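=== RUN LOG ===
request id: a7f3
mode: sequence -> structure
chains: 1
length: 916
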Amino acid sequence: MKVRVSSAGTGKTTSLVLRYLELVAAGTPLRRIAGMTFTRTAAEELRQRVGIGLRQLLETGAYLERRQPLTPADRPAFEEALRELDGATLTTIHGFMIAALRLVAPIMGLDPDFTVTGEWEAEAIFEEELGSLLYLARDAAHGLHSAWHLLGSEAVPLLRHLFSQRSLAERFTADDDPRNGALLKLFEASYKRFELRLGAVRLPPSEVERRALKMVRTPEALRRLRQRYHLVLIDEFQDVNPLQGRFFEALEQEGLLVEVVGDPKQSIYGFRNADVEFFRRAMKKGQLLPPLQRTRRHAQVLVRFLNRLTTTLAAQGMGFGPAEAPEVEAAGEQRQVRGRLELHWVTGDSPIARLRTAEAELLAARLEALHREHGYGYRQMAVLARSYAGLNQVEMALRRAGLPYVLLQGRGYFERLEVRDLYHALRVGIDPGGLDLGAWLRSPFTQLPLAEVDRVLRSEDPLGTLRNRHADVWERLERIRSWVRATPLSALKALIREPFIAGKRYVDYLDSRARENVDALLFTVARQPPGDIELLLSRLELLSRQRDAGDVPQSGDGISLLTVHRAKGLEWEVVAVFDLGRKAPAPARSLYLSYEDGAIYHRDALGAEIVREGFQRREEAESYRLFYVAVSRARTVLLMTGSVRNERYVGWSRALEAMGLGPDAGPYERPDFVLRAHPHRSREASGGVPPLDRPALVAAPWIDRVFTHHSYPPVYSPSRLTEETAEASEPLPFRDPEEGELLPGRAATIGTLVHYAISQNWSTAVPRHLENLRAQEVMFPFTPDEQADILDEVALLLSNYEHLLGNSLPTLRERSEDYPELPMALPNGGTVWQGIIDRLYRAAGQWYLEDYKTDHEVVPARYHFQLAVYLEAVRRVRKVTPRVRLVYLRKKHIEVIDQDELVDVFRRHAESEASG
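=== RESULT ===
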């Protein structure tokens, strides 16, 4: 295998075109060459570039570095290649595998006209077969009953995740751990059913890879393939997944010539199962060609910076090694361009969220200055960030500064509210009930107040109540039910464009971005219309789980905002890289797979920790490669900003600190290079806003009067006081004061969901109840894998609660009165204590006040004041004295709190506040 390293901007496509011309000149027909890259767009561009090269050689005798005129004997080969160009194999990796499988289909037991289905459809088929299998496995006599019983409610999400990882291993294995073995048994059984469903006529992408790998191990099929192709050229080889990598290794071992080009420094698609190790294996075992080292993209200053960056990171093993980081030099027009590099740090001890806000404002100011002072147009600029959270901060800063911008790609297209509105509208047209009805009633389709939505949903007959109380909304529902009987496309068009919402269309309630998203959905469905509404709904539901499906690009002109992953392969005159100080994400996983042997590891299994550490190392290495991709997008000006709190370097700031370009290295300024630290001081630290120079005013007579200060705010929560007291003495494990962002922590989210589920009397035995929890707003910041992990822990805590019912706690049927999530307000001194009592109920003549805790430790004294407030409120309002209990769900432990002690706690606290 021949291998060539091509750094960013050094012309991989050009090198491939030249290689095509060399091969044709050496007598290899174009039809015998298989060229491939990762996207259809890139493959079509390669086809066009090869065509341009062939025509220029035939017309002028020269193309780029090839200057030798064609002789009469040379011309026929190039003329033949030009005639064969339209039918030549210039495609994606999957396209080549599909063409090869069609070539040998009968040998491989396939229909030559097999259909290539989408991965989303494969997931839907697998989930259907998995659901049927698990239903049968509930029978104690079934052979898989013990495996199903061992995994319980986590079986479906774990097996669904395992199915999505099929490109990592041709065959999964498991050790002696019961959970690993149970997963493997259930997966193999459901996967066998899945394969039977596909038959010989349907293949999704991952199955194409698996069949292609079997093909190269079948001598007769391989012999046919070698008769068809003499040489394989592969672009972007650093992004192949393990099955693809093994496929090309097998081709090369069986004598087919394979040449690859790529850049390990730009391997950033681990979330798509890409594995850079296959490129590295090719470098070690194959023939290493001279690297491409002349960049026509970067100006002089940026070339020096990139060389220093790659040398530093390679020396420290941060993402890639020395052999993968050859130095480059400026070439072409950019060789004469000086360029500019700016690096700005925002430092201080303020919460990191405030530092990032200041950083975004600084970045906006610098972009405006580059436009005003240096003449760069806003459409020549792009802002790149690691995460969508960073892009949101930049977007707000640009909006405040009045600068035009275009969000090229947002997050979660299929989770956008307008797309989910249409999903729920179609769903209620089929079956108007449950969560879908609730979501539809909250949407623009009904225009009902929240109180009315609540009244309808809580009634014994929601549809009857809706028909009697809101005839106009009922009529809309009936129209939707009639539309869904037609084709999916016509139903979707009617929902979007018919003026049936009080004379308005659904799109009339949307802003411009949402309209573009809805139009894109229509185009997508029109391009591949599904056979029925259920198939369309299944597709939308599966696509909503994709993390990399973003908004459609916004139209307009301005600064481009996009994530680094979306920027790969693009370039701008001015590139700003934002948020150098953000930590690399480290999502929790419920299942781990070994890249080496395909071994399955449940997160709690013995040996999972070693595999987990390997994943973390891979993700950290990929994070540094992502930084290289970000900074190599700029042609002339590279602007970088980062926030560092208390001199703590995390994320990409560690790479710059290793280069000697941290905040302490400056200030440094010259026309082509700026390094500056911007200390950030909070208003409190700086003494407030400096007074304005105004004439003195006569003081009002009441100016010296002040309100009496109390120990606590006028309205305060006893639970909040408990949290603050605990934080002051011992930081809670789920708080991250370094981040300081207003997002719920994992533990807080678990607590919220558990309390809500208990208040609704939901059960772990009902899968729909857990899915209801997934739809709660507190889950939105988390990835699907993180959500699944959270729901697993919630299910454990709820099952512990269900175990207590009927044993240590009265069952729901034994309670004559029951008030979950009971609001309370208790005026006392200068403060109104306001909160929620988890549960107040009466059973067998006794009142109980219960507070549910998800703590890992049993420390009742921490909650005495909170419970004392709740007890006093119940005594004053209901004139009863309940028995007070703390229910620790993790431990399945109930702590009875002495009532007299709580009364004394409240009395002493009230006396202390009065005297203070």
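=== NOTES ===
Residues 545-555, 684-692, 727-743 have pLDDT under 50 and may be disordered.
The chain has five domains: 2-111+208-292, 118-198, 313-409+555-679, 415-533, 732-804.
=== END ===
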